[in-house]
Amino acid sequence: MVPTLKVNPLALRLGELLKQRIVKLDSKNWAKSGGDQMRLEMLTTIDAMRPGEVAMLENIRFSKDEEGNKGTLAEELANLADIFVLDGFAVSHRADASVVGVAKYLPVFAGLLMETEVKALSKVLQRPRKPLVAIIGGIKAETKIPVIKNLLKKSNYILIGGGIVSTYLYALGFKIGSSVVDKKYAKEILQYCKNKKVIKPLDVVVGDIKGKKYWVKDLDKNFKITDKNLAIYDIGPKTIHEFSKIIKKAKTIVWNGAMGYFEQHPYENATYSIARLVATRSKGPAFGVVGGGETLLSLEAVKMSEYVDHISTGGGAMLEFLSGKKLPGVKVIS
């Protein structure tokens, strides 16, 4: 068990919100070495609770049987309850004991958050108002390729930024300095980015990692970065202008992944511009869905989160849902 990952602070905060004491159940790591005494103590504590009281278990990821739904963990969890409400969309892409295992032993229902997530993302995939514009950025090409592949069939435009752009340029044979490249998936990125629906940047911001020197370079046949101390850290102003014209026409928008290394000034311009555009278009002319840790941070930075129709709590789960996969956690509530 990792002390800093214990749920004690969560129990305290939940107690503040509910204005009552939260009963913390010491489930430790559910190891068999804990013996029947630990399990008996938990059951005794639960039996002694009054209607309206709330109990919280220890971090379930401490159990080696959680991942992959191994051992008897799911059955033990089910023994503590009468019904199972699955509200963790962010873990719904995992076939773990606390996600799918418990559902085998108890009546299962979707929580309010899970219901909201599935409805919002289904709206993007199944009945989007057109034009549908997808904005895909971030570093990992591996997780974005299935999304691009699936959304190509449904979107009018897919705007790309981040590591996907540098990987695409690498696949075309350009010299790109120390830019982030996912070489393993370069051929696939090249294949999908050749589609006319995928709108590539017209220019990029090249510089050093600390942002002390930087400049805008057009993406033409003469583009190259030979200095290994330099890299592509953002998309450029021409691209922002072109993307903005497309976003302003959208009726449905889905965005996942930053356009560049926005944590370092001055490489935040494109990501913040996209954040403002998406938020401005949402909750009115368009239905906007945004997800991914970095993407949400950028919305918070420009103080525009409240203007987006749906903020997804799922990073990997959102991407897998948008790629068309049937998530294990969604299956059990269907």
UniProtKB/TrEMBL annotation:
Its EC number is 2.7.2.3. It holds the Pfam family PGK. Keywords: ATP-binding, Glycolysis, Kinase, Nucleotide-binding, Transferase. It catalyses: (2R)-3-phosphoglycerate + ATP = (2R)-3-phospho-glyceroyl phosphate + ADP. It comes from the Bacteria. Pathway: Carbohydrate degradation; glycolysis; pyruvate from D-glyceraldehyde 3-phosphate: step 2/5. One of its GO terms (cellular component) is cytosol. The keyword Secreted does not apply. Gene3D superfamilies: Phosphoglycerate kinase, N-terminal domain. GO terms for biological process: gluconeogenesis; glycolytic process. It is an enzyme of class 2 (transferase). Belongs to the phosphoglycerate kinase family. This is Phosphoglycerate kinase. It comes from Candidatus Magasanikbacteria bacterium CG10_big_fil_rev_8_21_14_0_10_36_16. The lineage of its organism: Bacteria, Candidatus Magasanikiibacteriota.
